[in-house]
């Protein structure tokens, strides 16, 4: 009996280890040895033929054999399971791929680029300045003295201040004018894109944060006609070659004379009343849309930065980017730009 058991053990372990690592062949192996009519099961049955003294020892040995064979089968099965899990995790390189979404610039960034590129084509250089400004650059250098009522026009977010400097969030990009002039000698022409901040209540056309593009050209004999030519060229490139430009007298402390610049309405083409007899909803029937402020640099500003106003002249302008983007794309609510709703942003 003992040698029979030994023989069966060797045979079973040999067959299991050389059998294919497949569930079917291992199941066949289990049936062959441990099944109801399996070789080992039969051994247990044959114990009845043994004498009472031989039986306990034989039972012990057959039990050990059963355990050994069972363990060997289990080991082989668990190796299959590990292999199957590994296979499942493998990437099937023959499947068609999933194309990742490609990001693109925000419509405001795109509009800023478009504006700046036009001015670059006209010889302007792009410059930037800080969003946190001092009162000095946001107001003083721009001929907006303390207590002057025109400060109210640039309602401003003030920040925690230290003793001698008053810090604020710039309310326009014009402070970069003085910052640039202090460090450079004319002639030059620059455009300055950037964020500006005003404590306005948010509605469809106001946001406490928006973007401007400032322009500044300073040189020997820069005239108002240069300003008109540059801006007329810009509006044609930006809004189409049939766009008309109109200058209206205005006031800014840092330019003299100052102008507000309109373009012919890009929706009704300056017609005002539309075909149906109703007023154009974009220009309100006026036929014109105001898009920027401009003027000749005030000599007082040149004095502040140490330029001689007898020697140099210049023009400056500033425009709101959101307003231009809204006009170009027919958007009626400024808040859409900042809500980050991809359903809106994907349309550009
Ligand atoms: N800074 C002005 C504003 O924010 C715009 C402007 C810039 C006007 C430059 C004239 C010259 O309203």
List keywords for this structure.
7-stranded mixed sheet, 2 domains, elongated, 3-stranded antiparallel sheet, about 350 residues, BirA Bifunctional Protein, domain 2, alpha+beta, 11 helices, binds phenylalanine
For the record, the CATH class of the largest domain is Alpha Beta
Tell me the CATH superfamily of the largest domain. Bira Bifunctional Protein, Domain 2
Our count of domains comes out at: 2
Task: Write the H/E string, N to C.
Answer: HHHHHEEHEEHEEHEEEHEHH
CATH fold topology of the largest domain:
BirA Bifunctional Protein, domain 2
SS-based class: alpha+beta
Report on this model:
- This protein is of the alpha+beta class and about 350 residues long.
- The chain folds into two domains: about 1-90; about 105-345, Bira Bifunctional Protein, Domain 2 (BirA Bifunctional Protein, domain 2, 2-Layer Sandwich), CATH 3.30.930.
- About 40% of the residues lie in helices and about 20% in strands.
- It is built from eleven helices and ten strands.
- The strands form two sheets. A seven-stranded mixed sheet has the order 1-5-6-10-9-8-7. Strands 2-4-3 form a three-stranded antiparallel sheet.
- It is elongated and about 130 Å long.
- It starts with a helix and ends with a helix.
- The mean pLDDT is about 90.
- Phenylalanine binds near residues 214 and 295.
